[in-house]
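Following up on my earlier thread - several people asked me to post the actual chain instead of describing it. Fair enough. Here it is, all 269 residues.
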Amino acid sequence: MSTQLHSSHRHSQAKDHERYQETTPNPDHHHPENFIPTLPEDIILDYLAEGAANVVYRISFPPRSPAISSSSLSSFSDNNGPNTPPPTELEAIHVNPLFQHRLLRLRKSIPSSQITLQTFEAFQTTIAPLFPSACLVEQDIVRLPPDLLDAANAGLQRDEEAGKRTVSRRGVYLASDESFGILVSDMTPNKEVGEVTVEFKTKWLAQSPSAPLDARRCRTCALRAMRDARARAKNEESEGDYRREGEGLCTLDLVSDDRRRVEVAVRRI
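Reply from S.P.:
Thanks for posting it. Predicted structure:
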């Protein structure tokens, strides 16, 4: 699904930001030059993936102004009046490097979701200090242009009608009252040169908030066991052989003092 904005320049979402300011720490100090950039209104979104709480898009832009040669300047002078400024006096159109090779993460409208400002602040102040910066996917907060969320939600609805959206994700859309999104580095591997991406989520090291108090499985193993049980009830295979009981990855093994368990976990990633 690809969505391009055609903004009607309606009122911005500044009131939403003001409404959040009283309860949300200001994230501007985490960004260079002490400001939050705004995505261009001509941004093009291409649906990449979604989870329970967010939808992730690839972003691109229409072609920008080409390089201007000396011959082009001469021709311009010959064909335009004296009151028309030459191209060198007009502001060139370029894409902010901050937006290049990035993905845009937008939150869904679900009861448990936090506004993006709070999510970004929590990552910067709680998660980021725990790890070397080289081990973290780069994140930057950005303001959303008018109509972006409406256009993206319309795209999700079109995908549903065409049967392209996962059944379990249907009926839930992006939070239309949100004013911000988060840019993350595009870690898509280049398979032509043998690249692979290994993702590690910090939540894997904590028990699920909804787990019973006497739970003995970690959240990853509990999820796999639930899927295995459902598959057995339907007399079906689980989602891939590596998910079968006794063969799946327990992420807690990655921090085990037992070298053998660590090696097994790495092989199963």
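The first helix runs from residue 14 to 21. That should answer part of your original question.
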